[in-house]
Task: structure prediction
Amino acid sequence: MSTELNGGKKKPNSFNASKVTTQTVVDMKFRGEAISMLTAYDYTMAKLVDAANVDIILVGDSASNVMAGNETTLPMTLDHMIYHTSCVVKGVDRALVVADLPFMSYQVTTKEALISAGRMMKEAGAHAIKVEGGAPIVDTVKRIVDAGIPVMGHLGLTPQSIYKFGTYKVRATEDLEAEQLMSDAIRLQEAGCFGLVLEKIPSKLSKKVTEELDIPTIGIGAGPHCDGQVLVLHDMLGLNKDFHPRFLRRYADLHTDIVNAVGNYVKDVKSRDFPNDQEQYN
Result:
C-alpha cells in the first residue's frame, strides 16, 4: 500500500505489516498467540510503543495519575481523554488503539454513553473504547456495539469505582464475588465486547474466565493464564519509582537515566561547557 493510499502516513514497519484490528486479537486467542498491550498518552510515546510492535495501545484514564498527578482516575473528563487519544492515534501505524471512556461519561444513560463513545471515535480517531463494570452496563455495551463501535470490557479491580471498593486490594477472592465476575464476563461477551481486561484478581479465576470465553482476556495482576497482558507504560519503564505492586515488572530504569541526564545538562550549563564550539553557529 502506498503512503498516498494510506492517508499520507508511512506504512507499518516490516516486522508485522498487518494492521491490528479487533478481529485480529480475537483470532490471536484462537491461535494461542499472546496479546501485548501497553498504555500511551501522547504522540511521541505512542510512536515508540508502536515501533516495538505492541498489539494494543490503551489510552487509559490512568493518564489522570501519571500525566496529571491526580490520586485517582476520576478527575479525567471526556475532553481530556479525546485530547490524549487524538495525540496517540497520530503516532500509530500498526497497533489497535483502545480508549477509556472516563468516569461518568457512560454510567448515567445509554444515550449519553453512546454519544461519548461516538465522540471518542469521531473526534479522537480511536479504534475502540473500553468501559468498566459488569451487569449494570450490559445494556450500555450492547447499544454502543449495535451502533458499530467496538467495546472492550473491564472487570475485577475497576479504578473508577475505587471509592466504592475503598481499597486497591485483590478482587473476587470470595466465591460470591468470583461467581458474579464470571457471570458478568459472560454477559459482556454476549453484549458484544470483543475483549475483556481482568485486573487484580486471583490467577485461578482468570484462568477459568479465559477458558470460558470466546473473546480474549487481557490481564493486569491477574496471572499468566489470560490471553494477553497489559501494563502502564510509565510503570514498566521505571519512570514511576513510587509504585511497587507484585504484578509489575520493570523493563528499564528511566527515572535514574533521566535524572542523571538532566543533572549532567545542568552541570554543563553551569560550567559553561555547553554549548561548545561545535554546538554553535558562526
Observations:
- The chain has a mean pLDDT of 93.
- The chain has two domains: 22-251, 253-282.
- The longest strand covers residues 151-156.
- DSSP finds eleven helices and eight strands in the chain.
